[in-house]
Amino acid sequence: MLSRIISVFLSTLLLVGLCCLTMRGVAGLNRRAISAAQELVAAGSTRIASDLEEQGRKLGGDAERFAGRPELATDLKGLSLLLAMSPPSGKVPERVRTRIDLVKGKLEEAVVAYKEAHPHVVAMTFVDDRGLVLLSNSSTFRIGDRLAPPRAEPEEEAAATADDSGTEAVKPTAIEPVKGVAAIPAAGAPGYGKAGFVLTALDKGLQHATLVESGVVRWLAAAPLLLKGTTIGAVILEQRVQTLPHLPGVEALLVVSDNVSLGKAPAGFDLQLARESDQPYLWVSRLPVVDLPVLGSMAFAPRFVDMGEVGVWARRFAVPGTKSTFGMVFADVSPMYAELAGLQLFVMLMTAVVWAAHLAMLLLLGLRFRRGVDRVADFLGRLTQGIGDERQINEKAFPPALTRLVLLVNKSLERSAGTTGLAPLPKSPSLDDVLQAQQVEPPEIGDLRFEGITDSGTLGVAKKAAPSAPPPPPEDGFESLGEEAQ
């Protein structure tokens, strides 16, 4: 029994050691997962930030090409002059209205044709040389908004518009609005700019800007409209950031005003955990989820792995032109470790099965041998008692370890049968059957003597000891037997 306990203990240690060695070996296969996630997150954040910046530059190029059309500058200059024609009554004559509608229609046709060819442009705005919005289909800029600071004070403007005789011209007054175009505001209209945007493209330069409003990020590109080298206004193109560039292996989201505007946040998302760091970091710690065929899904921490590195790795990127808006690029490595956890669970399960099978083999070791010895002993016992008619043992029905013993028993039985001539006995043999089978002559009745009643109440019978000299023969055997009994 002690040897079996030692065998079980040693085999258990061997199997557990083999299991741990295998689990440690498969854990080394995922060592590159963390490094790969860090590299993907770092490269992804840089790539998305550069792509967003490239979108703004591309929109600026579109604005420059669109503003380079000479017919746009001519039409915008004509519209500005028509609106500046203000009669003393302040009412626009019908003929002026007709000309305004004609010029306005030409500009709108140009806008529609350009948007069909460039679907990423969502809105377009025209301003005159004073920064006044004349036409716009934007949800931010309205007709009549002033987006640029006035170039001169009202007194200076009045002096500049004086006639040749030096008489001061009449200051422009507000006129009746025309549907779809802007009215010239009265001098000294308060404020300029809109939604934090101030137009600077009137200085013959291309302007890029980022506008964040109502959870939406827009790129703005303003280009000046030149007519014979003179700036007569500007055109503003808008592009909405609707999607983030897709990169394999990583996900991205855009945060506007502490809310996710674009992308899908991972489970356990917490904006407070976002760091302003140039290096990737573990954003959300997460246990791998393993899908088992019978037990279902379960969270399991793989062994020989630093669980402080398993989860969602992230890196923050900035949106050009704004500080309140930023993005996150993240990669979840827990699915990779879920495969490792499933493999380790399989190794543990197979180790448990092998240990159970090995334990059963150790416990059942020698059972067939012991049963064979018991069968040989039972056979010899039946043979000694004369029960049954078996004369030989079938050596093929015993394990190989008992083959020599079975052959020896059969050989002994063959020799015994040849010398003594043993005869089979019936199922319930009598004394005469046993003596006859053993070929023993029954004793004469005269050879028996009675020794008296034993303690158990039976009569003992034994053979008489042979005398040194034979007595004279009695006349009657029964009388001698009676005399001895007396």
Describe the structure.
It is rod-shaped, with a radius of gyration of 57 Å. Mean pLDDT is 74; it is low at 153-189 and 476-486. The strands form 4 sheets. Strands 2-1-5-4-3 form a 5-stranded antiparallel beta sheet, covered by helices on one side. It has a 5-stranded antiparallel beta sheet with strand order 7-6-12-11-8. Strands 9-10 form a two-stranded antiparallel sheet. It contains 10 helices and 14 strands. It has helices at 2-27, 31-67, 70-84, 94-117, 154-160, 334-364, 367-385, 403-420, 431-437, 477-485; strands at 123-128, 133-136, 207-213, 216-227, 230-240, 251-256, 259-262, 281-285, 289-292, 296-299, 311-318, 325-332, 448-453, 459-463. A hairpin with a 3-residue loop joins strand 9 (289-292) and strand 10 (296-299).
